[in-house]
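Limitations

Structures in this collection are predictions, not experimental determinations, and the ligand pose is part of the prediction. Treat each record accordingly. The example that follows, with zinc ion as the small molecule, is included so readers can see exactly what is and is not provided: the inputs are given verbatim, and the output is the predicted complex.
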Amino acid sequence: MSERAAPFYCPYCGDEDLRPHEEGHGAWECAACNRAFQLKFLGLLTRGLQPNSTGGEPI
Ligand SMILES: [Zn+2]
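Predicted complex:
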């Protein structure tokens, strides 16, 4: 298993029959609805790391 982020369900039809797309890099294709999609890591959320930095409410 070299894939870091593997979806369990198709985000479009909800089927589990997913397989890596040939383009790679987090690309998957769904055999059920014939869609290809890509997972992309956008970055870490800062929310919660510095709870008081925004002067917000306590968690
Ligand atoms: Zn699908």
